[in-house]
Design brief:
This protein has seven helices and 13 strands. The chain is an alpha+beta fold. The protein has a single domain (2-259), classed as Endonuclease/exonuclease/phosphatase (Deoxyribonuclease I, Chain A), CATH 3.60.10. α5 runs parallel beside α6. The longest helix has 19 residues, at 119-137.
């Protein structure tokens, strides 16, 4: 199963720029989208229900804000909107589809904002995400957590780590959560895996987001903040994880994971 993730930074804008995500990523089995922004009622019918696909949307209550979607070739066995916590579900940040025992999650983690103005909300979201993922694995499911985590984990994951140590997305608290999330269970971690980094431990300049206001993309002054992580039981089925920086249309590029 080929599963893509893409923060489109507005599905209407991305579609005008390069085409609809399912046309651009036409080899996909599943496409998880983040920062869709537009609510389905504001979209054309052919966007809401694209021909040949099953499309599911979880929108923020605030129009034009946040929101996620999942587009599938095959109809899933279950669709779950939100994490069951109104603090986050009103912002349309998480949804999942299940195929048998395989769960694919589309997640748009909050931005901790300038001077950490929203770091408490971000960390509460991360804590709730842990419970949410455990609710799936406790049912015997394996999980792919795809999306924009809004966190660069290590210095190799952004072009200018020193200059960004006090900036949103690279705050110590955020990196510490990633350490725990991806940490060895014997050392108190949750044991999840980041297959891209595990397969490319020394690969530099592998970014997924570039600031528009500084025209950073042509110079590849970026951040790796979009991930495909998996629970320990799923790792052996991961065949490939890729980035697609050549695909424009958003300030993020798509990433993908292939599961046997």
């Amino acid at each position: 199963m080929l599963i893509y993730s893409w923060n489109v930074n507005g599905i209407r804008a991305a579609s005008r720029n390069v085409g609809r995500p399912w046309d651009v990523l036409d080899k996909a089995d599943v496409i998880t989208l983040q920062e869709v922004k537009a609510q389905p009622a504001a979209l054309e019918p052919e966007m809401v229900e694209p021909d040949g696909w099953y499309a599911y949307w979880h929108s923020a209550e605030k129009p034009g804000y946040s929101s996620v979607a999942i587009i599938c070739r095959k109809q899933p066995d279950e669709i779950r909107l939100g994490m069951g916590d109104a603090r986050f579900d009103v912002e349309g940040r998480v949804m999942a589809v299940r195929f048998g025992t395989l769960v694919v999650v589309s997640a748009y983690f909050p931005n901790s904002q300038d001077k950490g103005a929203r770091i408490a909300y971000k960390l509460a979201f991360c804590a709730q995400m842990e419970k949410y993922l455990k609710s799936w694995t406790d049912q015997g499911c394996d999980v792919v957590l795809q999306g924009d985590y809004n966190i660069a984990h290590r210095p190799i994951d952004l072009a200018r780590p020193k200059e960004n140590e006090k900036n949103a997305g690279y705050l110590p608290e955020e990196r510490a959560w990633m350490d725990r999330f991806l940490g060895d269970t014997a050392a108190g971690g949750l044991g999840w895996h980041d297959p891209f980094r595990e397969n490319h431990p020394d690969l530099k300049d592998a970014y997924t987001w570039w600031a528009v206001r500084t025209n950073a993309r042509p110079r590849n002054i970026g951040w790796r903040i979009d991930y495909s992580t998996v629970n320990p039981g799923l790792l052996s089925r991961v065949q490939k994880v890729q980035h697609y920086p050549e695909i424009k249309g958003s300030d993020h590029c798509p990433v993908s994971i292939t599961i046997a």
